[in-house]
Amino acid sequence: MVNTATDIPTYWDRYAQGVAPQQDAEALADAFGWTQYPHHGPGVELLDAADSALELGCGRGNAVAALAHQGAKATGVDLSTVQIDQARQRWEPLGAQFVHADAVEFLTGAAQRWEAIYSIWGAAWFTDPDVLFPLVHERLEPGGRFVFSCAPAVPGSYGVQGMYGAGFTGRQVWVYRWAYETGVWEDILTRHGFTQVQVWEEPAPEADHVGTVMGIAHRSG
Ligand SMILES: C[S@@+](CC[C@H](N)C(=O)[O-])C[C@H]1O[C@@H](n2cnc3c(N)ncnc32)[C@H](O)[C@@H]1O
């Protein structure tokens, strides 16, 4: 396994400070954009009306709040203190729950199962899938589903991708993310026990713009 940088939480805290604020109603209405384009692509229906849901890398927590608002038991996990503090303050009154933790550590220690575990450009592609996916599978209810979105791989550049998180003149902070062609994501999910696996690239609204990788996989019922 690749070594992890020491300062990833600080990288994500800095990222959190750059996220534009939204009014509550707008934030809830826009919460289930799986793609990077507003009002584009599939929505909350991908979670199949799950009664219990866990988001890995929930950021501001808008999607967790939207599910709680609809009556689901919804929990978000994120390793950024800034994101989790803001999400708690804003969305806990709706019944949403937030945990400050790394997704792998949280799932390793978790005792409960969820009907849906999901990640919107979150921990699913910032964590080695050979580490994260078995833990996700283990914590799904039988018949439950894992749904995630992330960027497509740059053609010819597959597997772990490294980037300097504080620029080329700043402290040595590096962040890893993982990128594969859709068929390889399907193979990885299948190898870790998922069934009814489907990974596709959702096209961008405009031709030749960057699309979105979307994945859905199930734990056998
Ligand atoms: C690009 S943001 C997306 C946030 C949110 N899902 C959204 O759509 O706005 C990625 C988020 O994943 C979180 N994250 C990255 N790696 C993580 C990990 N291993 N465990 C928990 N959270 C993680 C970051 O702190 C950040 O909030």
Characteristics:
about 220 residues; alpha/beta; Rossmann fold; seven-stranded mixed beta sheet; two-stranded antiparallel sheet; 7 helices; about 25% strand; globular; disordered N terminus; binds S-adenosylmethionine; methyltransferase; transferase
What does this structure look like?
The model is unreliable at 1-5 (pLDDT under 50). This protein has helices at 8-17, 24-29, 62-69, 81-91, 103-109, 129-139, 182-191; strands spanning 52-56, 73-78, 97-100, 114-120, 140-150, 159-164, 174-179, 195-202, 212-218. α6 links the parallel β4 (114-120) and β5. The protein is globular and about 45 Å long. The protein has 221 residues and is an alpha/beta fold. The relative contact order is 0.16. It has one domain (8-16, 48-218): 3-Layer(aba) Sandwich (Rossmann fold), CATH 3.40.50. The chain has 7 helices and 9 strands; from the N terminus they run ααβαβαβαβαβββαββ. The site of S-adenosylmethionine (SAM) has 18 residues, from β2. Keywords: Methyltransferase, Plasmid, Transferase.
